[in-house]
Design goal:
Length: about 270
């Protein structure tokens, strides 16, 4: 079977990124997948079962050097990228003043710096060819001041805004930019963010397979943005008409440490 093209997926060792890679592979796209976890090699072997070529890279996408290694793999392939799914992301819970700054910086460097640098590098390649599709994983968190997730929500607000601005700049180039805005999804996110003791960390979450399909389809259709799940659509709509102070207070009630199962505790 002839290849459908070349797709790059970051954060592809699990969760939404892995599901995006699976969808692309099932449609015949050769893959370059990257993550900062050793299991990306195992996932690369799994993705080859779809009958496509897969280059799996264990790189730190929070660093310029890590992104450069990914771009070098693209250049070594010799083909232009047809699909870029910039999904790598990191979260961090607890009060900002109680966070280790290096961990907070890792969130910013992964979600913002690394993503923007990768999009610029591969976006330039797409512009030279005159075609390409970019999917950036933002979040409905970007609409909400995230008490006890302040850096993470702020980083997603940046990505949401950046996606729309970049889409406008590229509207006459043959390149589309789509922003996928999921809500809480059943991945390792809350474990890695040290938020399992929160209400949102323990709540029922969306299936990453469903979220990825919504995002992939929107990208292929050239849509500007998509919010996965009707509850998240409602939440995003309400965020647009609710005062920021109220949104921050509501977020604190579900994201503050120790809020897990609070509604099951007897009142005094």
């Amino acid at each position: 079977m002839a290849s459908a093209g070349l797709a790059v997926v970051t954060g592809a060792s699990n969760g939404i990124g892995l599901e995006l890679a699976r969808i692309a592979a099932s449609k015949g796209y050769d893959l370059i997948v990257a993550a900062d976890e050793a299991e990306i090699d195992e996932m690369g072997a799994h993705l080859r079962d779809f009958g496509v070529a897969v280059d799996a890279l264990n790189v730190d996408l929070a660093t310029i050097e890590g992104v450069d290694r990914l771009y070098e793999a693209v250049e070594a392939d010799g083909r232009s990228v047809d699909l870029l799914m910039a999904n790598a992301g990191r979260g961090l819970g607890k009060a900002f003043l109680d966070q280790d700054f290096l961990e907070a910086r890792q969130v910013i460097d992964t979600n913002v710096v690394g993503t923007v640098y990768l999009v610029q590098q591969l976006g330039r390649q797409m512009r030279t060819r005159g075609s390409g599709r970019i999917l950036i994983t933002g979040s409905i968190a970007g609409f909400i001041p995230g008490s006890y997730q302040a850096v993470y929500n702020g980083s997603k607000a940046f990505l949401n805004s950046f996606s729309f601005a970049l889409r406008n700049e590229l509207q006459d180039t043959g390149i589309t930019v789509t922003c996928l805005m999921p809500g809480p999804t059943d991945t390792r996110f809350f474990e890695r963010a040290d938020m399992l003791d929160t209400e949102v960390g323990q709540a029922v979450k969306d299936d990453p397979q469903d979220v990825a399909k919504v995002g992939f389809d929107a990208m292929m259709d050239g849509e500007a943005d998509v919010v996965a799940g009707w509850k998240n659509k409602f939440q995003a709509a309400m965020a647009n008409v609710t005062p920021s102070a109220m949104l921050a207070e509501r977020h604190a009630k579900i994201a503050a440490p120790g809020t897990a199962n609070k509604h099951d505790e007897p009142e005094d």
